[in-house]
Amino acid sequence: MSTILGIETSCDETSAGVVEDGVRVLSNVVASQVDLHAKYGGVVPEIASRAHIERLDSVIEEAMAVAGVTQETIDAIAVTNRPGLVGALLIGVTAAKTLSWAWGKPLVGVDHIRAHAYSAAIEMDAPPWPAVGLIVSGGHTSLFRIASPTSIELLGATTDDAAGEAFDKVATILGLGYPGGPLVEKLARDGDPKAVDFPRTMLAHDSLDFSFSGVKTAVLYHVHGHGRTSGGLERLAPRELADIAASFQQAVIDVLVRKTMLAVARTGLRTVVLGGGVAANTTLRSALAAACAERKLAFHAAKTAYCTDNAAMIAALGYHQLQAGDTAGLDLDAYASAL
Ligand code: KG4
Ligand code: ZN
User: Can you tell me which atom of ligand 1 is nearest the CA of 180?
Assistant: First the structure.
């Protein structure tokens, strides 16, 4: 049995968690910074770094206390070292290196997007691999062929806005605030997904890449097309706003589901996993579940707690990297880009 402490500071959540053998979560403490960034309408990197510095020690202490582990019973420290805001990543990486050195425990550098790709396997009795993984987050929209936790191949990715980024920008256009995804989903519940025919950008017919900037711009024009270049929002009735939110959400989901099914056809795999912040969206979860059921594919979505940023997924994937001998030295660095 192997117990891993995971640390996550890539964006606006300060998180630490303890996971056994890559599946059993003993603790997963997440300190969200949403309140600090909300008034700016998005994440301010300097504020994120400062908040990570202020909060990380107590978040780690709490994660270890809840899990009932000590420095003696931890087998390794796993930390997100890419992709993300470099200043924010460096806080977690520096803390992890310090603990690794002070406690004499191995250090593992984890790719945040690959941890999202793994996250559906957390707390599962039997591993779901091999699988096609759809990862939808604030900065990335990616399709992976996941042969095993340590053998993850990128099949396609976003060429412009990520799915979550599109949700956040549409939330701003609709005057909903930040973070946008959950607010758009809430508003969409009262709307008709067929009310507005927003574009479904598929790129080349066999492409597994994504583009969501077109649908975002279409929403912008739709709102402001109701009159002037500004103030279009005020002219829309609540029902019309809900219709726009529902139609936008459906356009994004249609593309995500179609591309995932294309990846299934391409790879011949019979299992689909879903992860990342946008995977918390219940309409997406049920649309993908339905498409999989229709084709008799196994489908596993990450539990909601492991969709948005969390350290449990970092500790979980870190376990498999440790088993594979993929450890890092104290020269581990932070990188803005994914592997
Ligand atoms: O994975 P995540 O927590 O952070 C990144 O790695 O980027 O994803 C955050 C993204 C944000 O864009 C947020 O608006 C979106 O996930 N999100 C959602 C929902 N919950 C979070 N998007 C749609 N529906 C949701 N319920
Ligand atoms: Zn994430």
Answer: 14
